[in-house]
Write a structure and sequence with these properties.
two-stranded antiparallel ribbon, 6 strands, alpha+beta
Length: 338
């Protein structure tokens, strides 16, 4: 790959970072085996029967931790783009401080929730064992065998710490450089150099293709999100129990325009211009003004419909030119900064 191709990835890495968030906690589940419920494994067909994972604790016992995990993943989904088949999520620099700040707050909440859970763990374990005892007596012929399995599945309180973590990793991806060869037998030296050089060329070419596709997909994704939001706004205005224009609906569009600008790392100026026109032409009025003025109401519906149709059409277009422009603009910025 030539230097021009290399620079596309270099520009991308200067526009943002890859982020990965991992939230781990004890799930309080146990996968039961046939023998755990008094069945002969040879008599159970995996095609027909799946014992599956059963809860050791009630669902609400871990609800606080589950909620924090869901919020963390939702934050990442809303502010990033999946990169290279999920190896990480690309976070634009414009969102870096906001997202990492919120993640730090969630991490503190996570450790507080962990402490609360561990303080209640002994009681939760005791209560759950009683409930399991009542069910075991009704469900299986040998309840003692099932209860022994259940009780053995609860971790010792002193060793629970290893089940909990809240990790945020920021990293960047680079194309492979020339591979060095460690000391090897002389006969293998040339073969290893050849194999590693081939791997570098193939990996570099794949990263180039994947980077170009990622930028194009990110552009299309923001355009599709615009069209989807317009559909929801039109449905809110024209149908349902709350027919009419509501300030919450207009505020949602304002927030989306701001979000689009902060995520528009690829400089999709055409879509951004369309959104800015909508802001200036349609969002200077209040919801009450739209409800009181039928002409303005009609203009709002027409304007949002036009934005939806334009966004949908743009999302279908080939983004090759935009990808190339992104690389060229980034290179110009690098030269100016040098």
């Amino acid at each position: 790959m030539n230097n021009g191709s290399n620079q596309l990835l270099e520009v991308l890495t200067r526009e943002g970072v890859l982020i990965n968030v991992s939230v781990r906690y004890w799930r309080g589940c146990k996968k039961l085996r046939a023998e755990d419920v008094g069945l002969n494994p040879d008599d159970v067909s995996d095609r027909l029967i799946s014992l599956g994972h059963k809860r050791l604790l009630p669902k609400d016992a871990l609800a606080e931790l589950s909620l924090i995990e869901g919020r963390a993943h939702a934050l990442i989904e809303a502010n990033t783009f999946p990169f290279l088949n999920g190896i990480g999520h690309f976070l634009p620099n414009t969102k870096l401080e906001e997202v990492t700040g919120k993640l730090k707050e969630m991490e503190l909440e996570f450790w507080d929730a962990r402490s609360n859970f561990l303080q209640r763990y002994a009681r939760l374990r005791r209560d759950a064992a009683q409930e399991w005892r009542q069910m075991a007596d009704k469900l299986v012929k040998d309840p003692e065998q099932l209860m022994a399995t259940i009780e053995a599945s609860f971790p010792d309180p002193d060793h629970m710490g290893r089940f909990f973590s809240f990790d945020t990793s920021l990293f960047q991806i680079t194309v492979p450089k020339k591979c060095s060869v460690e000391m090897v037998a002389m006969g293998d030296h040339q073969a290893i150099i050849k194999a590693r050089s081939k791997a570098v060329v193939e990996a570099t070419a794949k990263i180039k293709r994947d980077t170009e596709r990622f930028i194009a997909d990110s552009i299309a994704s923001l355009r599709e999100q615009t069209a989807h939001l317009c559909d929801e706004i039109l449905q809110s205005i024209n149908g349902g129990k709350t027919e009419g224009v509501h300030q919450k609906t207009l505020n949602r569009l304002v927030k989306f325009i701001d979000q689009f600008k902060s995520l528009n790392f690829a400089n999709d100026s055409e879509m951004e211009e369309q959104l800015e026109n909508v802001r200036q032409e349609l969002l200077s009025k209040t919801a009450q003004e739209y409800r009181d003025d039928s002409v303005a109401h009609r203009q709002l519906v027409q304007g949002v419909s036009k934005l939806r149709d334009t966004a949908r059409e743009l999302a279908k277009q080939d983004a090759t030119e935009l990808v190339q422009r992104f690389g060229e603009l980034g290179r110009r910025r690098l030269h100016l900064a040098a």
